[in-house]
Amino acid sequence: MPNSVSSLAIFDLDNTLLAGDSDHAWGEFLCANGHVDAQQHQRLNDQFYQAYCDGNLDIDAYLQFALSAIAGKTPAELSQLHADFMQQFIQPMRLKKADILLQNHRENGDFLLIITATNDFIAAPIAQALGVDDLIASQAEIINGVYTGKPTGIPSFQNGKVERLKRWLSDRDFSLETAYFYSDSHNDLPLLSAVGHPIAVDADETLQQYAEQMGWPSISLRNLNA
Questions:
Q1: Which of 65, 73, 153, 193 could link 77 by a cystine bridge, Cβ 3.0 to 4.6 Å?
Q2: How far apart are the first and last CA of the chain?
Q3: Which sequence positions are flagged as catalytic?
Q4: φ and ψ at residue 120, rounded to 5 degrees
Q5: Per-residue pLDDT tens for 208-218?
Q6: What is the DSSP letter of 58?
Q7: How far apart are CA 59 and CA 19, in angstroms?
Q8: Are strands 134-143 and 146-152 parallel, antiparallel or unpaired?
Q9: 3-class secondary-structure state, position 201
Q10: Is the four-CA dihedral 95, 13, 207, 112 of positive or negative sign?
Q11: Domains plus CATH for the chain?
Q12: Number of CB atoms found within 10 A of residue 77's CB
């Protein structure tokens, strides 16, 4: 193993390292296990996800929706619920090629960072399971040890990912010019355009077209033959 960090390797989470969207899956988990009004919650969950895919998501409204079910609870009270979510919904989304990609960067001495619009309540245990070095996620507000059900700070979404990353970099010795960023989504074009090594991963149609125009590499973590 190298003695010093080589480069910063940044990864989107949903539909990149996972074969699915953990945020949307959280809503499906709540519906499937009777924690919410399933009909209403599923309708809104699907609407927000479609808006995300279309590139016009109101991230603040979505975060309030996604966090509503944990309002008034402590992290300890929610630990088993999240463990059940991981087992039922996240484990089936794990990708062998994603684990190999992470390991290749790890063995190269790179610093592994996930940056995701998904809130940290959902994303932190997933990032831990994937074995990355750090996580930038949208932040769920906690006051007096209890989730309020509201977001706080700048959501790490679209241009917000760039802003959150630059703040993170302010006291670290990494360069965006040598950084890698892997993503599936056209919502991540601001950050993909800011790094020296942008890589499209199982990209949506808009990102795939842009990547081809720009000459960016395009890979698949789902196709075992790719």
A1: 73
A2: 27
A3: 12, 14
A4: -70, -25
A5: 999 999 999 99
A6: -
A7: 22
A8: antiparallel
A9: strand
A10: negative
A11: 8-219 (3.40.50.1000)
A12: 12
